[in-house]
Design a protein that fits this description.
Length: 92
């Protein structure tokens, strides 16, 4: 599984609408409205790089109101949630 973090610049007056449309894309697990130089961050989870190459340019970038994207591919995932789930197996 490949996880990508996509930084999105959007038309300011359309951020909620853009976020909802991006969240509807199948490979997008979450979309965050954030402060700073970008407007939205989308988490994308796909099986392979070909899927990622399709989701961002053919999906996210085609949403009306998206002005620019910057994609970062994760090498590894470190998560407290994953550790808690792993260590809680068999515990009551």
């Amino acid at each position: 599984m490949i996880t990508a973090i996509v930084f999105i610049k959007a038309d300011v007056d359309r951020i909620p609408e853009v976020a909802e449309k991006i969240a509807d894309i199948e490979a997008v697990s979450e979309v965050f409205s954030v402060t700073g130089k970008i407007d939205l961050i989308a988490l994308v989870r796909v099986r392979n790089h070909d899927d990622l190459a399709r989701v961002v340019p053919e999906g996210i970038n085609k949403v009306a109101g998206v002005r620019a994207t910057e994609t970062h591919v994760a090498f590894r995932t470190y998560s407290r949630h994953d550790l808690e789930a792993m260590f809680s197996i068999g515990m009551e």
